Amino acid sequence: MLTIATPRLSPAEWRDVQAALSAVADCGCGQPAAAGSLRARIAHAVDALVGPNRQAQAALPDRFVPVRDFLCATGRTGRIAPAHAATLAAQGYSPAQIDALALLGA
């Protein structure tokens, strides 16, 4: 569990956090199976038996991949992932926005 105080953000900063969380809401943390791998073959067999997943997600825009990676790493460890936080900071997120993403998304 993260122990971070609720960050103070402007309404515009909260909108940016909300937009980022909405964009990655259904993307999950797993990587797609590599073509030809056992995992891909099993997924193909399951699709053949029960039908393909009709709720397959559209590709995540590149600008939100660091957000997804940050949330996945933070959720796994229960702590803010520093390497991913640095990537978000380089992308323009403030430290308070990174804290808000961690609190709300992980």
Helix content: 55-70%
Q: How much of the sequence is in beta strands?
A: under 5%
Order of helices and strands: HHHHH
Counted by DSSP, the helix tally is 5
Q: How many structural domains?
A: 1
**Mean pLDDT metric:** 82
Shape: elongated
In summary, what is this structure?
By secondary structure, the protein is mainly α.
Helix and strand topology:
Blueprint: H1 11-24, H2 38-50, H3 65-77, H4 82-90, H5 95-105
Helix pairs in contact: 1-5, 3-4
Q: Can you walk me through this structure?
A:
The chain has 106 residues and is mainly alpha-helical. It has one domain (13-105). It has helices at 11-24, 38-50, 65-77, 82-90, 95-105. Helix 1 packs across helix 5 and helix 3 packs antiparallel against helix 4 (82-90). It is elongated. The model has no long low-confidence stretch (mean pLDDT 82).
Which labels suit this protein?
single chain, 106 residues, mainly alpha
